[in-house]
Design brief:
Structural class: mainly alpha
Number of domains: 2
Mean pLDDT: 87
Order of helices and strands: HHHHHHHHHHHHH
Number of strands: 0
Helix content: over 70%
Distance between the termini: 67 Å
Largest sheet: none
Low-confidence stretches: 1-22, 261-265
Strand content: under 5%
């Protein structure tokens, strides 16, 4: 049974090598972090619970479904972790939780499954595992409740999924101005800043948002995306300046223009 379990995981993990259209594993980690934040803590929990059962099974000579000894665990866990960054993300690492959940059901519901002393020890291990599992669920729920879209995008701003989520905010009708402003203000990725500026330009307030866009234009001036920010400024201000004008020229023109009286910073 153990060999079949290991072979099943290996086979499923290797399926991705035949499909180049699958997203990379690091991008999948970002998607999983949107559902189960913080995703790396979930991975650590899965590995820790499984390996603790591996050590217990080895020391006590107890057979636990799906659990290898420490040597098998040290082979399986690094393999799944390395594979998770190639194709499917941490989905197969989460399979390491299954033996712990099944064991917990057995030790608490099946009274004749194991001797009394062994059951007591396994109940302690299972209780700790289930408690950590429950705590992580509550933590993820609290993070998802309090974390804004901008917080999530900025946390993973150099990833492909973050760019996709930023475009959703920018191209929504109406765009999510609060989140877009936060991305422009705190972001360091010029592509995300440019996308957010384009979204702000469609429904933004010139008095409030022009200084924000000028600040962004100044920060990324010279990058390939600066023309998108300048285009957003053209749209939001209605000014007619030569394309590629420097931030200083924009500031001078805006300061002299009577339509926009806000302070440029």
């Amino acid at each position: 049974m153990k060999k079949r379990y290991l072979l099943l995981i290996v086979w499923l993990s290797l399926i991705g090598s035949a499909n180049e259209s699958l997203a990379c594993g690091s991008c999948m980690y970002v998607y999983f972090d949107k559902i189960l934040p913080p995703i790396l803590l979930w991975v650590l929990f899965s590995v820790s619970w499984y390996f603790s059962l591996s050590i217990y099974a080895f020391i006590t000579k107890t057979k636990i479904w799906g659990v290898f000894g420490p040597v098998g665990g040290l082979i399986l866990i690094p393999f799944l972790y390395a594979t998770s960054f190639m194709y499917f993300g941490p989905i197969f690492i989460f399979l390491l939780i299954l033996p712990g959940i099944i064991l917990s059901l057995k030790v608490f519901l099946l009274s004749k499954w194991i001797d009394i002393k062994g059951k007591r020890n396994l109940r302690v291990i299972s209780a700790i595992g289930i408690s950590c599992f429950t705590y992580l669920i509550l933590m993820s729920a609290n993070i998802n409740r309090d974390r804004t879209e901008a917080d999530f995008i900025l946390e993973h701003e150099n990833s492909g999924p973050s760019e996709m989520f930023c475009k959703r905010l920018a191209y929504a009708n109406p765009p999510r101005l609060i989140d877009l402003r936060e991305i422009v203000l705190k972001g360091k990725n010029s592509r995300l800043i440019a996308i957010a500026c384009e979204g702000i330009a469609t429904h933004g307030d010139p008095v409030r948002d022009v200084p924000l866009l000028i600040n962004a234009y100044e920060r990324i001036f010279g990058a390939s995306e600066d023309e998108k920010v300048e285009s957003a400024l053209f749209k939001l201000t209605g000014l007619d300046l030569p394309e590629g004008s420097s931030p200083d020229i924009w500031k001078e023109q805006l300061t002299a223009d009577s339509k926009i009286t806000t302070k440029i910073y």
